[in-house]
């Protein structure tokens, strides 16, 4: 392709259009439809007045807080406390809803807490590693180093993924299932395990319940039927079943390929069922682990920045829990769950939620069906955005507050995927004009009648005084290194793995059994038809981060911008060439992107990322169908068609 080629010029133009976000250093307020610079006093007064006005007119449930999975535990603790105490509602959530809310829901349903069951070290000590719906090499590169060490120590790696990703290329076996068939594949594996006599009867009888109903539900899923539905060859299903069940220790890990479906919670429960069936939980080196994609998405939930749990994952519906927090905070806690992020967007559209406080989140570019999200947020009477950049979400705000970068300009703690709490220390001074998130929250609370004055350590100590599973994690102990929760006492450390109680012989020590869950296979909502014959799935690439606001300003030799990845067979059938611009349409809209050929895809499957929404807004065409339990959208399964822009045939 020459420099004069129209397709080449189009890509160059798009690259020039890519937005470079600069740090916010002065508050902004909206006058006559336009954001203008303002003083901190004017901006804070305007923000607080809007919150007060809306809650006075419509009640506290007219308010919604979108907290930040990239900010510290301490900020998230105060954000949810602000929502519940200063405002008086449980309408608080974060981008956990976009990614791993089904993991939290599934793990909490079975085990009582929403954290992964193992440490990273145990990945190195295990015998079998199953990565299901996870391109960990690109999406979780630090975790993948533990996988590689485990493999060097003799662990066998199986990857279950519709694409032959760079992760799958490291695997001993790759199981290329059809998108949306995770539950049938899990049932097929389970049936083979049971029919081969490999189920762990000791653990099943001691630590679980509802096994008989689960076994009956798995019975129709023979190897032949499972192969027909999932597209995975029967011999690979059998090999994974036998290898996983026979292993002394095995780790089953998943990411958004499991959760970002309309039945994401059911998908998670399907994998948990396999762990229960084989006894691969509650022991060192044996576990069930969601891999979190952002630095503090685990911690945000732990701190109570979710609508149904208070800090320490304590259920709001428990009267004793509400009484404890109410006494400590000086205000009764609503005896009902709040709205999650998905529900809040729905209630904005209905006019029930009229004001939002968004801290460090960018739903305009991260939510499915992006134009619908823009329309909803534009309906708000009062929107306040607190961020380090003027994101597309901030551009819709009535007040914009410039904050500090949590990972380098603040003190506090983060909690990673293995439940490890770690100190983060201020390394850089923020630019003049930006303020710390906690200082902003305290100032906002004071303007609304609550005399808040917190340092990060004071916020942490208040939280752990109320959350037993964090009680023993003092800042002094964290000076020596990270500590996993649960940690009940400053004098002890708990095992690195959870749920050892399920192996106890004494029923009282064993506690509530872990239930098997009977599940129903439900295909993707967005059906394939003659008009929309290709299945689009989305994911991450190593060179970029989420919506690209932070990573897009830095060059990477690996970055190639957004592409529509197609199997060569599909490209030939469509008459399109590698690098050619095409129109990609779903039932919700259309976008334009260049084609990239990828033989690691199956024919009929296409792939795109969500890293370049200023260049190609992929979430314009994704579907908003959501998991009824967790509220997570089906980013992984849109139906699309692809059309050439140039009517002349490709050569």
Describe this protein's structure:
With 651 residues, this protein is α/β, with parallel strands linked by helices. The strands form 6 sheets. The chain has a 7-stranded mixed sheet, with helices on both faces. It has a 6-stranded mixed sheet with strand order 21-23-22-25-20-24. A hairpin with a 2-residue loop joins strand 1 and strand 2. Helix 3 runs parallel beside helix 20, helix 8 packs antiparallel against helix 11 and helix 17 crosses helix 19. It is globular, with a radius of gyration of 25 Å. The N terminus is likely disordered.
Assign a percent range to the helix content: 25-40%
Taken from the alpha-carbon principal axes, the silhouette is globular
Proportion in β-strands: 15-25%
Tally of DSSP helical segments:
24
Which descriptors would you attach to this protein?
single chain, 651 residues, alpha/beta, 7-stranded mixed beta sheet, 6-stranded mixed beta sheet, 24 helices, 25 strands, 35% helix, disordered N terminus
């Amino acid at each position: 392709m020459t420099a004069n080629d129209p397709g080449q010029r189009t890509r160059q133009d798009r690259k020039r259009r890519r937005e470079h976000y600069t740090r916010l250093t002065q508050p902004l307020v909206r006058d006559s439809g336009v954001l203008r610079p303002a003083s901190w006093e004017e901006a804070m007064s305007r923000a607080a007045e809007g919150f007060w006005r809306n809650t006075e007119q419509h009640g506290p449930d007219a308010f919604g807080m979108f907290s930040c999975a990239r900010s510290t535990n301490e900020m998230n603790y105060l954000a949810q406390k602000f929502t519940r105490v200063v405002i008086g509602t449980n309408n608080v959530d974060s981008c956990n809803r976009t990614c791993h809310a089904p993991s939290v829901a599934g793990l909490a349903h079975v085990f009582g807490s929403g954290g992964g069951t193992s440490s990273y070290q145990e990945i190195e000590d295990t015998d079998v590693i199953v990565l299901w719906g996870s391109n960990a090499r690109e999406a979780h590169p630090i975790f993948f180093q533990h996988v590689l060490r485990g493999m060097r120590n003799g662990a066998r790696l199986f990857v279950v993924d519709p694409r032959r990703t760079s992760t799958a290329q490291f695997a001993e076996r790759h199981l290329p299932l059809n998108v949306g068939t995770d539950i049938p594949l899990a049932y097929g594996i389970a049936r083979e395990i049971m029919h081969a006599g490999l189920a762990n009867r000791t653990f099943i009888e001691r630590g679980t319940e509802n096994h008989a109903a689960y076994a009956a539900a798995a019975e129709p899923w023979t190897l032949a039927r499972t192969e027909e539905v999932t597209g995975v060859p029967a011999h690979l299903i059998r090999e994974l079943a036998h290898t996983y069940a026979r292993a002394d220790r095995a780790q089953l890990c998943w990411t958004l390929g499991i959760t970002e479906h309309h039945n994401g919670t059911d998908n998670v429960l399907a994998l948990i069922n396999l762990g229960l069936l084989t006894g691969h939980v509650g022991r060192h080196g044996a576990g069930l682990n969601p891999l979190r994609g952002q630095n503090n998405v685990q911690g945000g939930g732990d701190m109570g920045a979710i609508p149904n749990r208070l800090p320490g994952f304590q259920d709001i519906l428990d009267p004793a829990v509400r009484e404890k927090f109410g006494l400590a905070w000086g205000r009764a806690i609503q005896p009902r769950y709040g709205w999650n992020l998905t529900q809040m967007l729905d209630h904005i559209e209905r006019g029930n939620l009229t004001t939002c406080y968004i801290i460090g989140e960018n739903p305009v570019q991260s939510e499915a069906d992006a134009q619908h999200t823009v329309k909803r947020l534009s309906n708000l009477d009062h929107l306040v955005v607190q961020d380090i950049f003027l994101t597309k979400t901030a551009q819709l705000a009535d007040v914009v507050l410039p904050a500090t970068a949590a990972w380098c300009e603040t003190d506090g703690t983060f909690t990673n995927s293995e439940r490890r709490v770690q100190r983060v220390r201020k390394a850089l001074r923020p630019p003049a004009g930006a303020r710390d998130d906690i200082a902003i929250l305290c100032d906002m609370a004071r303007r609304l009648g609550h005399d808040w004055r917190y340092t990060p350590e004071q916020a942490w100590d208040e939280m752990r005084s109320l959350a037993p599973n964090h009680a023993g994690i003092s800042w002094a102990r964290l000076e020596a290194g990270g500590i996993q929760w649960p940690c009940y006492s400053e004098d002890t450390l708990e095992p690195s793995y959870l749920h050892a109680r399920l192996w106890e012989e004494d029923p009282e020590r064993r506690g509530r059994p872990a239930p098997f869950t009977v599940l129903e296979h439900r295909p993707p909502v967005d059906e394939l038809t003659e008009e929309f014959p290709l299945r689009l799935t989305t994911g991450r690439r190593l060179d970029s981060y989420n919506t690209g606001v932070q990573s897009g300003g830095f060059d990477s030799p690996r970055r190639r911008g957004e592409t529509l990845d197609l199997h060569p067979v599909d490209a030939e059938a469509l008459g399109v060439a590698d690098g050619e611009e095409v129109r990609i349409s779903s039932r919700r809209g259309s976008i334009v992107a260049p084609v990239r050929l990828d033989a690691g895809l199956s024919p009929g499957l296409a792939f795109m990322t969500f890293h370049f929404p200023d260049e190609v807004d992929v979430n314009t065409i994704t579907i908003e169908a959501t998991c009824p339990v967790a509220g997570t959208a089906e980013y992984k399964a849109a139906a699309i068609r692809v059309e050439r822009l140039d009517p002349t045939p490709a050569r």
